[in-house]
Design brief:
Strand 7 and strand 8 form a beta hairpin. The termini are far apart. It is built from 7 helices and 8 strands, in the order αββααβββαβαββαα. Helix content is 36%, strand content 14%. By secondary structure, the protein is of the alpha/beta class. The model has no long low-confidence stretch (mean pLDDT 95). It has one domain: 3-Layer(aba) Sandwich (Uracil-DNA Glycosylase, subunit E), CATH 3.40.470.10. Strands 1-5-2-6-8-7 form a 6-stranded mixed beta sheet. It has a two-stranded antiparallel sheet with strand order 3-4. The radius of gyration is 16 Å and the shape is globular. Helix 4 crosses helix 5.
Length: 211
Amino acid sequence: MTPILPGNECDLCPRLVEFRHKNRAIFPDFHNAPVDSFGSLNAALLIVGLAPGLKGANRTSRPFTGDYAGDLLYPTISTFGFARGTYGAKPDDGLKLKNCRITNAVRCVPPENKPVGVEMNACRQFLEAEIAAMKNLKLILALGSIAHNSVLRTLGHKQSAYKFGHAAEHVFPDGLLMIDSYHCSRYNTNTGRLTTEMFHTVFEKIRKILD
């Protein structure tokens, strides 16, 4: 059975391995290893991002923790009842997810936050195993078009059949749902491509579906 998480010394992607080793020398106190998912495998909601941020999850070891994207994501999921506690931008802040799990399509930090196709392909086996292990999974939230496409490939669906669009809803033949959102990155929020209100609209849909 494929493990859900690659080992800390995963060598599937030479470029990411090299980048990891460089970061260990520059930032010896960082996690600098594949980042595990956050939340229970029993959850009904799986949030899929792109990859760990260099000074976010790659530093803290928890998805979306310690960077700007998490400053929007975690308060939002708390607002809509998918977390309890207060987000403190560190893995020991006591925040607990409720019926929600958060992961990334690529588990290691890539240079310039941009994984390439061969790295997405190499890491897909872990997302596939994770989804298969989530027996109560009803809905996947894809943050950004790359995460959207990665989920489609993981599930064996054609991209042409399910077009990415903010707040777009997709129903797969087996009944599993996917909803898209623009990624909650600083770039998207600073440019106005994604506002807090737009992000909340997505979670309003998710809350109604799962209630």
